[in-house]
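[Meeting: bench + compute handoff]

Bench side (C.D.) handed over the final construct sequence. Compute side (W.E.) agreed to return the predicted structure before the next meeting so the bench team could plan truncations. Sequence as handed over:
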Amino acid sequence: MLRVIGLEKSFGDSKVLKGVNLEIKEGEITVIVGPSGGGKTTLLRCISGLTKPDKGSIIINNKYLYKDGEGAHRKEKLEIPMDVGLVFQNFNLFPHMNVLENITEAPRVVLGVGIEEAKNKAKEILGFLGLANKENSYPFQLSGGQKQRVAIGRALAMNPKLICFDEPTSALDPSITEEVANLIKKLSIEKGMTVLIITHDMTFATIVADRILSMDNGVLKNEHMYI
């Protein structure tokens, strides 16, 4: 589902990614762990199309996002980010929109989906996430775990092939770590979703991952552990 080949990225004189190579199989949950400043977030931002690498290639679902550091053809570049869903560390929900509106906004604006179709899809997703009774609630009325689920729902509404999580437990009470892990495993098992997670939380990583990789100083280590 994902191939990263020789990815490099610098910010000024600081080289953040130093020839990163990564492959993730369809339906696999891969977790990348490592210290702050090691390049994990930059790698995730490159894969999700938010940051342009200097060198290297990213191939998602057999389509190039970047080839030898250059953007793909315009048609492919428009398609590929829709194959990738990103759940931000702090959820980034729209505070002035209720749950249903948060989930339907992108499909309507970006994909041109009709309002009724978008609502029906959102309600289906909320049912899957156990939030069927929260569609009219606003973010300030939700717990951290519920906000996390809405953020996942917003990503799912775009029908991604790969979903990426940036520190999914960092803003949550440690007591719901296992709950979040079980939900992500449910995405993989029931939805066939391919998942990439970056985290500092080794307990969470051990619970959720099919495979754990470590990253430090811009280098993704080849050693890995299958769970």
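W.E. noted at the follow-up: The CA atoms of residues 4 and 58 lie 5 Å apart. C.D. will use this when planning the next construct.
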